[in-house]
Amino acid sequence: MIRIAVRCPNWVGDTVMATPVLAHLRASYPGAEITAVARPNSRAVLEGNPHVDRVWIADDRRLGNLWRLARRVRRERFDLAILLPNSFRSALPFYLAGVRKRVGYARDRRSVLLTHPVECAEFHIRCHQVEYYMNLLADLGACNVEEAERQLVLHPTDAHRREIDNVLAGQGLSANRFLAAISPGAAYGSSKCWLPDRFARVADFLTEKHGAAVLLVGAPDEAPLCHEIASLCRRPVFDLGPRVSLGGLVALCERLGLFVTNDCGAMHVAAAMRVPLVAIFGPTDPTRTLPYDPDASVVEKIKTCRCEIAPCYKKKCPIDHRCMTAVETADVEAAIERQIQRLRARS
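Predicted structure:
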C-alpha cells in the first residue's frame, strides 16, 4: 500500500482550494492511504473529506513542534509527500523524516529539501491558486492533471449540522426563511475588509427589499466588527459572530440563499458549497484567488481606484484604503440582484 502525506496550506481558504489535489490523488492512487497534515485552523474543512483517510493537526510554527512532526512522519514511513505551502519550514520535517519522494515548488531556498522540486514559472505566478496546487501533481506518473476535475470538496459533518440546527432554532429562524449571511472580516488583515457602514447598508437592503434574515458571522476576534455592523443597521440582523464555528459555517452554507463576504476563507467555503456568492476584493488580485465558482460575483475596483501600489497584498493598508473605499454600496447591491435573479431562475 502506498502511503501519501499531503502538507496542506496554512490558510483556511487555501486549504479549501487544495481539496482538488486530495481528490485527484485518491483517483490516481485508489489503494493508497492519504494523510492530510494541516494546521489547527483548517481541521474543520478537512473533516468528512472522502478523499482523506486521516487528518493530522500539526502546528509547526514552533521548533519543538516541527521536530515532533518529523519524528511522527518518520514512524509512518510515507512513500510520497506533496508539500503545498511554499515555505522552507513546511518541507523540513519531511526531509528530516527521510520521506522517499518529496514534491513541492522550488521556492524559499528549499530545493535541497525536495527530491522533486518543481520550478515556478511565470504561468504559476499568474494562474488561479487551484491550478497552482494541481500543477504539483503534473510530474507524477499516475496523475493525469490535464483531465482531472477541479471540484472543491467540503462535506459538513452531522455534528456541525446539529450545531447549526441549534443556532438557528435559538434565533427563532424557520427552515423556510430566506437566509443571507455576511462575513465582514478577514484573517489575513484589515486591508481586505470592506467598510462596516457599507456592510450595514447592504444588510438593510437585503432585509427591506428581499425579506432576508441577515446573519453576521465571523471568527472570535471579529466579534467586535460584527457588533459594530449590527449597531449600524436600521433593521434587525442576527449577530451570530463566533457562535458559528468554521465547521458550522460549512453546514450553514447548506441553508443559505446568499453569501456576501470579503476575500477570505469564508468566501472559499461558500464557493465550495455553491452558495450564491458576492465577493468583495481590495488589495489582492482576484485572478489568482477569486471564488472557484463560475456563478460567483466578484466586486472590485483595483484597476480604477487610482492606487499606484494596487494590488499590494499588504495586510494593513499603508495609505487610505482606496481599493476598498472605491467599492460603493450600489456595486454590491447590483451584484446581489444578479445572484438573486439567478437563484430564482433555478427554482
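Summary: The chain has 15 helices and twelve strands.
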